[in-house]
Amino acid sequence: MKAFRSMPAPDKTPSRIAGMFDAIAPRYDLLNRVLSAGLDQTWRQRAVRELGLGARPRVVDLCTGTADLAIAAVRVHPDASVVALDFSGAMLRVARAKVSAGDHGARIRLVRADATRIPLAESVYDAATIGFGIRNVAEPNLALAELQRVLKPGGRLAILEFGQPRIPGIRTLYSWYFRYLLPAIGKLVSHHESAYSYLPASVGTFPPPAEFARTIEIHGFVNVRAVPLTFGIVYLYIGSKGFQKVPEGSRGF
Ligand SMILES: C[S@@+](CC[C@H](N)C(=O)[O-])C[C@H]1O[C@@H](n2cnc3c(N)ncnc32)[C@H](O)[C@@H]1O
To answer: Which of 11, 14, 58, 131 is a good FRET partner for 137, with 20 to 30 A between their CA atoms?
Structure first.
């Protein structure tokens, strides 16, 4: 069986990505629950808990989509305030409905913005999160630099992203599921031709955990760890903004 990484890199033009998420927004949450067998919410909760936040934390959730990670943050920390950003209007509409249904309006502010140009002041936030979003960003270095900018020194970072299981038998089984069954179910339920084949293609061309952890470090984060969740189907990247200034030109872009 072909390894994921042999797949061609998908087109991540921002207008294409935003349009794709606009189209699948109404079925996005349902498909997340079905395709992950309900595990996706436990991954988000774990990410929030690993932040180890204190009282009244100020959190930025980038690529918030339908706001599940932002909502997980205020459930774990009812005194948190979260700015949740995304560039897909339709995903944000679903998010807005969920935020008001859950009575989180006073805690979660939804903002339409590109992850590479965050309209927030620098060194203000205690934590930043991205759930299954960074892989979709055309210029992830710019998004990481933006998070580094808006976090306070010592501020915490948690990024969830798909990976590939390390145990050989599980890897083969999961690879088959991810490359063939998942896109078929995704297409059937979302009625979108390509969004759920884009998913394995984008995961397949995402850097391996050690490489992505190193990229995060290059952006001035310290104590960065890549923690495998559920056999490595998902990785949780955890770190903190360092106290030293990142020298210009050292970020690799
Ligand atoms: C797979 S969804 C993840 C949503 C949510 N964080 C979650 O945990 O389910 C990816 C989201 O990233 C958003 N996105 C991708 N690139 C972006 C960018 N450059 N700026 C803002 N949002 C972006 C998409 O619109 C989409 O809502």
So the answer is: 58
